[in-house]
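Limitations

Structures in this collection are predictions, not experimental determinations, and the ligand pose is part of the prediction. Treat each record accordingly. The example that follows, with adenosine-5'-triphosphate as the small molecule, is included so readers can see exactly what is and is not provided: the inputs are given verbatim, and the output is the predicted complex.
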Amino acid sequence: MKHELILLAGTKETEKALKNQLQSVFRDLISIKSFACDEGISSFFTKKLIVYSSSLIEEEVHDYIDHSSCTIIKARRTVNYEYIDRIFELPYGKKILYVNDFVKTAREAVSTLKRLGIDHVDYIPYSPGEEIAYDVDTAISPGETALIPDSIPVKIDIGVRLIDLNTITRIIHHFKLSEQVTYDITDRYTKKIIELSQRLGTINRKANTLNKFLNRVVDGVNDGILAFQEQGGEITVFNEVLEQMLGMSASSAKGKKLTRLFKNIELTHFLTSMEDEDQKYFTLRQKNVMVYRFRMKSEGVIVATFKDLEETIEMEKVRKRELQRSGHIAKYTFNSILGSSPVISETISIARKLARSELPVLIIGETGTGKELFSSAMHNESSRCTSPYLAVNCSALSEDLLESELFGYVEGAFTGALKGGKKGLFEQADGGTLFLDEIGDISMKLQTRLLRVLEEMEVRRIGGNKNIPIDVRIITATNKDLAKLIAEGTFREDLYHRLKILSLTLPSLRERAEDIPELIKYFLHSEQSRITQVDQELLSVLSQAKWTGNVRELKNTLLYMMTISEGDRLTTDLLPKNDHNFLKNDHTKNIKAFSLTQTEEYRNILSVLTGWYKEGKRASREKLSSDLKGTSTPLTIQQIRTRLSELQKLGYVVVYRGRKGTEITEAGSKWVKDKEECFK
Ligand SMILES: Nc1ncnc2c1ncn2[C@@H]1O[C@H](COP(=O)(O)OP(=O)(O)OP(=O)(O)O)[C@@H](O)[C@H]1O
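Predicted complex:
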């Protein structure tokens, strides 16, 4: 007759797991009936072998057993080998909460784990209701993860603890099973353990293969890579590039202590002390190397990468060539901007400062004053100089075309859309700068879209449903009065404030007429002209012209004169006929016809200058600005600069270079006197 065993467990889970275990060990030799206390026990047992899952249930099951006729075995439990790898995966030395329903069981289980040598982590026995005295983020539990406190984010089930070999042997003895059967059973138990070690072996082999693969990847990287344990300094990664950089073999370096291996004290100090900056420049075996260092806190590892600077510069050159090929490059630098008048020098100096910022810039200036030139120069002076620079003239494209140019589109967004869609300028300029010229001309719809891009730094292609993050600096330019457009309701005020966080006003050529000779000289030279002389009279006419088209107009005028000239000299005869710019006396007539405001402004400026002159002094722009504060025409320093330049052209003042100030001339004194008379 078949033997029968009664298994009594505390919970349903334990009952199920232990029954499975016993069945797989004893197969059809012993029939197993099992009961869980939490579900209630319906029978009274007589003349049976009763196995308790643990001595803790003794009291609960006492009344269901005829103690005089039954044999009782209190099972000893051990770790569940099915899940043991979950414990092995935990990092060395980590604090782990061991959770069970009773702290006594938890303590017992922890001591079993330690006895079995699974002691690489620091177990803290715990049962619900107790205080957790340590800062722990991981808990393990034998099938009772529901008992793990919510505050612990990582919960690991290590499976219900199984009945140990000693208890199995006691059951075998009880039923007096034959020796052969005993061998079979213990073999089966041992086989389970062998299966486990086979599984661990497979995991190990996989890990080794992955390790080899990662080593090959690390060796294939262009930079030197080093990793070492923060505690103790043992080197764990040392790739091939580093072998060449440091002149030592990886095999001899791995496993050694960093401080023993590296003779360069400064480098060792940099790698091991975490206080200073995380990158530093070194010369290693005659090579200039930049070392970057970072710490992998949870792994307790420090990683350093070594970058060969010459190679990096070479790569930058390749990248530049790539950008050049794609045309996404800024052509001009600050060296391309001509002129040495105070006003242009100061504008250049401000622009250089703005270049270093990441904020949007709005360039304001009349047509031909060099807005594109300044934008390009600012990109080249910025930290984005090796990334793309793209420019678009907003007034040159229709609204729809401009929209698809800027934002791109997805495939099928509209008829004629390219297969695979198209990247917009924002995406193409990623990492670099996008220059939007004539921004005052964009439609309200595009203004709204542009505002969103500036706010979110994301673009959505036309017809798309995905937001693409972008990293682009925006430079815009306009020759229109945006404040007026806002007042007229054609330009969004919020967009205006976003765009002009930094603004740059370019002077007109009229305001820096003293730069004209330098510009002429440069243009003649760049056109490889045979002209060697420019008449003084011509220079004087050119210096007094209005130049509404600014430098571009000057350039075009010179091209015209060069083309029609037959000699090596430029004279007034060569000036384009009927050009309102050069009509005789036109200039003087125009300037002298001052508006009332202008007259008042000039009168106040010249009166202040007269006061200073009487004291034998010249006035700086700052002094003028502060003296004018109380008058009917308070002016900013920038406005004063413009007015002084106009007054200088009229011969009413002399503006000295640098900080030397401005002096009123005799003609100026006379004019102001006349005006005072008129105003009386
Ligand atoms: N300071 C300068 N030095 C040298 N060249 C200049 C200078 N300013 C402008 N130019 C030249 O004048 C021409 C017009 O310049 P640019 O296109 O940058 O002007 P812009 O203000 O953007 O004009 P628009 O408003 O019409 O677009 C270009 O050929 C540029 O090289």
